[in-house]
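Give me the fold.
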Amino acid sequence: MFRHLAPERVRRVTAIRFEHSPGRGDLRFTGDRSAFDVFVEYVSPTGRRGFLGIEVKYHEALGDPAAEHRPRYDELAEAMGCFAAERAALRSPPLQQIWRDHLLAAALVAADVGYDEGVFVFLAPEANVACRRAVERYRRLLTNDSTFASWTLEDVVRPFAADRSARWCAELVDRYLAFERVTACVLRETASPAVPRVRLGALAADRVGRARARGRAHGAAS
């Protein structure tokens, strides 16, 4: 899969970790508690040791309050040399978390802990418009995007879609990416005279509130 998504980088995957940080609070890195949702170590076609540090979003809109800004972020940004001179927008939502994870990836390479290269990858469904727009804004603030990549969940699943034996892939799509089923369900419920619209609104608000609470909890932990 990773050879398909990043053929110029990945020849062989050597390890996969989840919710991985090279050192929470460690000033060799970002000095905060940032972590990658998925961390993939690989050997490149030329034998270099590298990693993909991946942040995964699903429903999140990246609108949570920004974490406290740290001088270390600016130090790393200067050292990376890939950001536009005016980068105030990177300190605020919706871009700050993307920026912090990108900085973490760069710091990990610079710390000389065994990696020759590394890339930060932002991953979200195609239908998450907020995330897509945030990535577009983020790219406009980069003068060099060689250490940044963005994938969709559909990109990740696509290599397996033609393999009829990969039942897990069909189940994953059905559970997480069949948004047309959600749309049909909402339309069906809103069209039903047996379900008051006020009740539907309350249910929707409750579900969105729970989802946002889970997103905030994840953001605080990272």
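The chain is about 45% helix and 15% strand.
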